[in-house]
Amino acid sequence: MEKTKYQKLASDLKKEIQSGYYSENEKIPSLREIQTLKSCSLTTAKEAYRILEEEGYIYVLNKSGYYVHKNIGSVILGPQNEYFETVEADDRIQQIMNTVMDPKLISFGAAIPADRYLPISELVSAYKKALLYKDTFSYGDLQGNPQLREWLAKRSSMNGYRVSAKQIQMTTGCTEAITYSLFAVTEPSDTVIVPSPIYVGLFQILETLKLKVVEIPYRTKEGIHINEFEKLIKRHKPKVFLFSANFNNPNGVLFPEENKIGLANICFQYGIHLIEDDIYGDLYHSGTRPKPLVSYFSQSMDGPKSFLCSSFSKTLSPGLRLGWVVSKTGIHSISKIARAFKISENHPTQLSVLEYLKRQSYEKHLKSLRIEYKKLCDDYNILLTEESNGNLHITKPDGGFVLWIESKLDGDKILMEAKKLGMAIAPGSLFGLSKHWKYFFRMNVSVGLSPKIREKLILFAKRFQKNGNSKRTF
Questions:
Q1: How far is CA 109 from the centre of its chain?
Q2: Which element (helix H / strand E) includes 257?
Q3: CATH number of 5-76
Q4: Shortest CA distance to 121 belongs to which of 295, 287, 338, 359?
Q5: At 399, is the secondary structure helix, strand, or coil?
Q6: How many secondary structure helices (H) and strands (E) does the chain include?
Q7: Angle ∠(298,205,223) on CA atoms, nearest 5
Q8: How far apart, in whole angstroms, are the C-alpha atoms of residue 374 and residue 380?
Q9: Identical topology for domains 5-76 and 91-115+364-462
Q10: Of 340, 346, 342, which is closest to residue 183 (Cα–Cα)?
Q11: In the UniProt record, does the keyword Transferase occur (predicted)?
């Protein structure tokens, strides 16, 4: 989409600041002066300066004028928020995903747990048992198997978010859970605020529902910057905040607790609905299971609603396609939407998973996954950093099984280079509508570290040895 005059002016002024033309604390031209210098209207100048002020490039002193921000270095090294009138998840995404999912390549790109970390034999046994139930092949409860929902409710309550089985709707995976949640609280042309980078699959949903998007970048150690977030709310008036507070895909970031509380309070204050993707929440690398952000959100039947979405795809099996939505005040809307698309959820699969949960220790299985994934993340980090001579910079994830890696090379070109080695990675450009992540890529460590894999990774990392050091951009 073509930029407006004031957006183009703001972009030009950012480049001047980034280049050092204007230095820290230096006074910049007044609105009238910039109007003459750039041959633009006063309105265009005002709007451009407003963007620069909101994004932290400049600040204003009463009766003195505009100045470059005191800590401009921390601003220009990081990505900025951007607004998109339309979302276009074009064919390029599908083309790249076809490469990422190519069975002929070692799939480091898809965020799918390897079979060796899934309880396949136990699930097969559970399916065989469930198939003997007399009602297995009948329609089940539209909201989902009551016993399975009861199990999920108890587990959620144990992890700090107290809910009942009546407040849970089963879905076909987490993607459907998020889609239903957006469908429940938005209309075409509403605005949704999302962190960047974020899971690529969300853009297809946002495009299909014809929603506008504001991207706000993750900030090191703090998650989402509270003041930046509030400014965006005031400016764009979003209907929904769509996010993953616990181990976001692709960067593995965990929001600090104080950040979750602050974001929850601001959203409730401004009437913003929350939709949280918590699919990686059980895969923390240390400490205890973090509470979802929605657990800090005030609940009111007349106020904004919250939806917690997850599934068994990352812990039991992606092929189960078994997810759920938890909502204390909006579950009726979710169930009504589900009723429009189906008569019931997959009854045999729900019974089989319930049978597995009765016979096996889910917590023991999760503990094993957490230990394995943390070790693999650490081992990959060491190997890739050493073999690239420090030219691959890896964001240390707080959980999950993917690494977010920065280099000096274009991620799309890295995809092609990896393909020559029989590997597939996911280029960073997939994970945002903006171009902030062009020099990043995502890598799935659950592929393991066998001698063959190690050899591939070494050859891959050595290709970065001559490309110089890069700076982290968030």
A1: 15
A2: helix 257-270
A3: 1.10.10.10
A4: 359
A5: strand
A6: 16, 16
A7: 50
A8: 10
A9: no
A10: 340
A11: yes
Instruction: Find all residues with CB under 8 Å of 171, minimum gap 6, and list them.
Output: 177, 180, 309, 311, 323, 324, 325, 338, 345
User: What is the residue-averaged pLDDT of the chain?
Assistant: 91
Per DSSP, the three-state class of 202 is helix
Token pair 């591939």: residue = 456
Q: Where are the domains of the chain?
A: 5-76, 91-115+364-462, 120-359
Look at residue 77 in the predicted model and tell me its pLDDT: 54
- Residue 473: per-residue pLDDT: 38
Phi/psi for 191 (5° steps) reads -105, 135
Strands 423-424 and 106-107: parallel
Question: In the chain, pLDDT over 70 holds for what percent of residues?
Answer: 93
| Angstrom distance (rounded) from CA 227 to CA 239 | 18
Query: By the 8 A CB rule, do 423 and 460 touch?
Result: yes
Predicted confidence at residue 471, as pLDDT, reads 46
The whole-model pTM stands at 0.85
Three-class SS of residue 275?
Answer: strand
pLDDT score for 93:
67
Tokens standing for residue 41: 């209207």
Class of domain 120-359: alpha beta
* Cα angle for residues 118, 123, 125 (degrees, 5° grid): 140
Residue with tokens 């600041």: 17
- Is the pLDDT confidence value at 336 over 60? yes
Neighbours of 326 (CB within 10 A): 27
N residues, the chain: 474
Neighbouring residues of 382: CB distance < 8 A, sequence distance ≥ 6: none
Task: Tell me how far apart the alpha carbons of residues 405 and 472 are, in angstroms, rounded to a whole number.
Answer: 10
- Please write the tens of the pLDDT for every residue from 455-474: 999 999 999 987 554 444 33
Q: How many CA atoms lie within 13 A of 188 on its CB side?
A: 5
Domain 91-115+364-462 classification at class level: alpha beta
Q: What is the pLDDT of residue 470?
A: 47
Q: What is the DSSP letter of 423?
A: E
- Give tens-digit pLDDT for 106-116: 989 889 999 99
What is d(CA 214, CA 82) in angstroms, rounded to the nearest whole number? 6
**What does the pLDDT read at residue 435?**
79
Confidence of residue 221 (pLDDT cuts 50, 70, 90): low
